[in-house]
Structure prediction request, 257 residues.
Amino acid sequence: MKRAIAILLGLALVGCAGGPPPVRYSDGFMRDVRNTANPSTVAATEIAFSRAAREDGQWTAFRRFLADGGVIHGRNGVIDAAGFLAGQSDPAVPVQWTPLAIWSSCDGQLAVTQGKFADPDGSWGFYVTVWERQRDGTYRWTYDMGAPDTALTERETRDREPPPEDDESVIVVQAIPMIQGEVADCRAEGSSPTGAAWPDTNGAASGGALSRDGSLAWRWVQGADGRRMFAAQQWRGGVWEPALDFAVTADGRVDPQ
Prediction:
């Protein structure tokens, strides 16, 4: 199976580079792959998503990678992504982003990514996206939320400042971010796929989902004051453990908590 995953990842990356059509594999081979977690495939999909935004248009890419029923979490709550995107024209300069971490259910049906983005206005921020694997084995996003981050903007701006023109000894190298991937433990056969225990929302609007195998759960919360929150939990060692907590303040910036 490790060999199968490596083959599929290679095909995904070739597809991103505009290579030849993928080779056809047996139904049994593809069935095994579809029931296996593979964070690298999610990473390749998100990278292809960002590349499509740059080459084909930001909102065009969002529409292309959207799953049925997907939502965008804005300042006033979640909105139907398809309806919102239908009326959007691609901006001349798109937002660009890259994943930094991935959490996958044991069966690979559900995955959560977090990464950073660069806005054309010069600000930087963080985002979270939920991906669902489709019947054909591809991933499509079903939830998206992001916000600018003051500390990240300051750091990225400082790191990208050019050296003084009269100092030829300075060499600036931008590091390529490492993408961390985690896979939840598989639940014991026959166990009930119960969802994670979440704190009380005190009546705030909320939503989310549980993977089919019950190993990864995610949730969003919209506060009455405009504060937005996202959390994911994964099944590890027979208990639910926090995977990701992401919060945005009422004025629309990442909450350092």
User: Anything to note?
Assistant: The CA atoms of residues 16 and 48 lie 6 Å apart. Residues 37-184 form a domain with the Nuclear Transport Factor 2; Chain: A, fold (CATH 3.10.450.50). The chain has a mean pLDDT of 85.
